[in-house]
Amino acid sequence: MKKALFLKRSRSFWLIFICWLVYSCSYIGKLSYNANINPIGEAFGVSYADTGAVSTFFFFAYGIGQVINGFLCKRYNIKYTIFVCLLTSAAANMALPFITDFSIIKYVWLINGLSMSFLWTLIIRLLSLSLPKKEIPKAIVAMGTTVATGTFLVYGMSSLFVAVANYRITFYVSAAIMLLSALLWLFSFNRLTKSEGNGEAEAALSEEKEKEGGSGGVGLLIATLAFFAVANNFTKDGLTAWTPDVLSEIYTTPSWLSILLTLLLPALAIFGAAVALRIYKLTRNFIGTCTLLFTGATLLFIAIIALIKNAAALPLTVFIFGLVSCLMAGVNNVITSMVPLHLKDKVSSGKLAGILNGFCYLGSTLSSYTLGIVADNFGWISVFYLLFALCIIVIILGTAYVIKECRDSKTRKNL
After folding, report:
1. pLDDT (tens digit, 9 = 90+) per residue, 188-238?
2. Cα–Cα distance between 248 and 236 in angstroms, integer?
3. DSSP 43-89
4. 43-78 in b/e burial notation, b at 16+ Cβ within 10 A?
5. C-alpha dist (Å) from residue 208 to 61, 203, 211
6. 197: left (phi > 0), else alpha (psi -120 to 50), else beta?
7. Computed from CA positions of residues 69, 112, 78, 334, in that sequence, does the dihedral angle turn out positive or negative?
8. Residues near 109 by Cβ (< 8 Å), separated by ≥ 6?
């Protein structure tokens, strides 16, 4: 009996690890362009808006794909769908360095975004149906570090290759990593997902409860989180994508150093999931947790606005960028991991993860092009004022939601 339990626990660990590894590596394939947005813009001689448009195409396809795949994920073969998607991203990365017409890049990256949109919904669905309930918190923390880990790796590679050779090497290496990830997934999937005899029952239970789970309270929670998701990725991805350009223009740092300094953002963001989980244990409220994290980001944006023009404050400014990234990573973990896995008895985890992640990437779609236009026309200081104002709106909405929830709770107790 003890041996059987050990094997089951061991399989859970390795399943979480492979999902973490594959999804972390997927961010190398996703962000290889963003990590090199500054040297690519210089090489082709295009504006911030033009380079940002490529990311907009990617995020648009990724966000729409997330929502569609959230509804359809039950029909997909998880093993082969993820394998093909990773191969497609590898092909897109391999193709990009050979493109000489900048206008074509956005279409290649749109295909990359569409292929990557399958991964999150399928991985969350797989984890929700495969893991014992006690293993879910481990999966939440682990999957919450994937974005930061992948971002750190791709920006680190880009900084190195831009410094010693050429930004194009990043795409070759990214393609190789995506190919290896695809093969690892293909050959480890069956071993880690052997049926325990209750998978079909869990799936049926999930579908049955989903029909019962359309209460107004859950609906309002999801609607509020959807808005938070847009604001979160507008801030998070906008800051990560444009930090190298901010540093290059304001502080005149070379491209390789700007990318290297940007590494601090994902390095600190790795702790975002743990910070969010700690706050949630205190609040036991998803919206309250997100609101507190946005409040911290608002205060940090005040500091950024005060310091941004001071060349001597460059190290401190970059560190503050990293703290904002950490808090926004925490919000992202609540929305895309914590909520879908905690509410799996009320709503299909794959569907909810797809819908909420789709709204996240609506924010990403808006941020890349919008912030590029704002920077082109009004300067980078205006970008930070815009992000500050957005955080204020989120805080107001989140506070109103928590107050309403407290009043509703008191009313129910008095009945």
Report:
1. 888 887 644 434 434 433 443 444 344 456 788 888 999 999 999 898 878
2. 19
3. HHT--HHHHHHHHHHHHHHHHHHHHHHHHHGGGS-HHHHHHHHHHHH
4. eeebebbbbbbbbbbbbbbbbbbbbbbbeebeebeb
5. 31, 9, 6
6. left
7. negative
8. 33, 54, 55, 57, 58, 92, 96
Distance (Å, whole) CA 320 – CA 186: 40
**Distance between CA 131 and CA 295 in Å, rounded?**
34
Residue 21 has pLDDT above 70, yes or no: yes
- Structure tokens belonging to residue 17: 């690890």
State the Cα–Cα distance between residues 39 and 206, nearest whole angstrom: 48
Question: Hey, how many other C-beta atoms are within 10 angstroms of the C-beta on 100?
Answer: 7
Q: Assess contact for 15 and 123: CB atoms under 8 A.
A: no
> Token pair of 409, please?
């709770």
**What is the amino acid identity at position 188?**
S
- Quick: pLDDT tens for 46-58: 887 788 788 888 8
326: its two tokens: 């950490």
